[in-house]
């Protein structure tokens, strides 16, 4: 049954990924994500249904518009495929759990925010703020289904705690971190803490670690200078994913190494 769940979530990721391409393109510009229908930005021809099949259409068209032969960015199939892989891995890790819908939604949001931040160095409120409401509702449903109300309290405390941590960093280092990152921190902290304190601690630490590694790599390859603005949202999102995936076993191993676990 787990195989069926993983495959179903992977298929869902392909379909949602196609929509996320629209979100990534339109939300930063303040445009509607539902109208008008998708069209080639060069010739204006609307996409046919057969040209809107995730990944496959891009391969069949060889990455070009059917009408004007303008190139179509490889990012479109990568977003679709990346969303599919992320949702499939989420389903594989969490299984048939009441909390799965909350993390599937967070995974979709993460893909959109990472792509937008890389493009525009922004994490739009239009995506982040509604995600607090959707995430809270889905986590509430999960807590009600399992009776683990302490997890819901932990989510509230963890979300507020990570928000405050990032807020402190943003105030201490003006310009080094945007308030979009602060808002995202609260959303990630809420989800990570629902799973456990270990996931929250590991996800928060991994976010800073990934961000530091990326910064050093950019400096070493001279793709950025010390004053270059580097989007931090993707590092936070990768860190959160690591917290979900390995937070509990890493914390257990650390406690065992310190002799604090029986």
TrEMBL record:
**Top-level taxon in the UniProt lineage:** Bacteria
Any one GO molecular function term: methyltransferase activity
What GO terms in the biological process aspect are recorded for it?
Answer: methylation; signal peptide processing
Domain Prepilin peptidase A24 N-terminal, chain residue ranges per copy: 11-93
Q: Which UniProt keywords apply?
A: Cell inner membrane, Cell membrane, Hydrolase, Membrane, Methyltransferase, Multifunctional enzyme, Protease, Transferase, Transmembrane, Transmembrane helix
Q: Which residues cross the membrane?
A: 95-115, 127-145, 151-172, 192-220, 232-257
Which EC numbers characterise this protein's activity in its record?
Answer: 2.1.1.-, 3.4.23.43
Which Gene3D superfamilies does the annotation name? 1.20.120.1220
Membrane topology classification: Multi-pass membrane protein
- UniProt-listed InterPro entries: Peptidase_A24A_bac, Prepilin_IV_endopep_pep, Prepilin_pept_A24_N, Prepilin_peptidase/N-MTase
Q: Which GO terms describe its cellular component?
A: plasma membrane
Q: Which reaction does it catalyse?
A: Typically cleaves a -Gly-|-Phe- bond to release an N-terminal, basic peptide of 5-8 residues from type IV prepilin, and then N-methylates the new N-terminal amino group, the methyl donor being S-adenosyl-L-methionine
The subcellular localization recorded is:
Cell inner membrane; Cell membrane
Q: Where is the Prepilin type IV endopeptidase peptidase domain?
A: 105-216
Tell me the Pfam families matching this sequence.
Answer: A24_N_bact, Peptidase_A24
Family the entry assigns: Belongs to the peptidase A24 family.
Q: What does this protein do?
A: Plays an essential role in type IV pili and type II pseudopili formation by proteolytically removing the leader sequence from substrate proteins and subsequently monomethylating the alpha-amino group of the newly exposed N-terminal phenylalanine.
The protein in question is named Prepilin leader peptidase/N-methyltransferase
């Amino acid at each position: 049954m787990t195989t069926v769940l993983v495959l179903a979530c992977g298929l869902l990721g392909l379909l949602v990924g196609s929509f996320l391409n629209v979100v990534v393109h339109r939300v930063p510009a303040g445009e509607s994500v539902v109208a008008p229908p998708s069209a080639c930005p060069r010739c204006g021809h609307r996409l046919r249904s057969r040209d809107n099949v995730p990944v496959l259409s891009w391969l069949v068209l060889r990455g070009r518009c059917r009408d004007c032969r303008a190139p179509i960015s490889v990012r479109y199939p990568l977003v679709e495929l990346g969303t599919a892989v992320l949702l499939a891995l989420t389903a594989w890790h969490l299984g048939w759990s009441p909390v799965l819908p909350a993390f599937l939604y967070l995974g979709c949001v993460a893909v959109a925010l990472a792509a937008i931040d890389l493009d525009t160095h922004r994490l739009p409120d239009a995506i982040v703020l509604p995600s607090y409401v959707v995430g809270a509702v889905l986590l509430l449903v999960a807590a009600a289904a399992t009776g683990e109300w302490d997890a819901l309290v932990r989510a509230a405390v963890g979300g507020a705690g990570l928000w405050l941590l990032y807020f402190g960093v943003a105030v201490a280092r003006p310009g080094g971190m945007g308030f979009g990152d602060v808002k995202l921190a609260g959303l990630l902290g809420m989800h990570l803490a629902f799973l456990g304190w270990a996931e929250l601690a590991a996800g928060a630490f991994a976010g800073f670690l990934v961000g530091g590694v990326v910064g050093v790599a950019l400096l070493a390859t001279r793709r950025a200078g010390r004053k270059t603005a580097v989007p931090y949202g993707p590092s936070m999102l990768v860190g959160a994913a690591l917290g979900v995936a390995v937070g509990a076993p890493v914390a257990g191993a650390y406690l065992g190494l310190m002799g604090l676990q029986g």
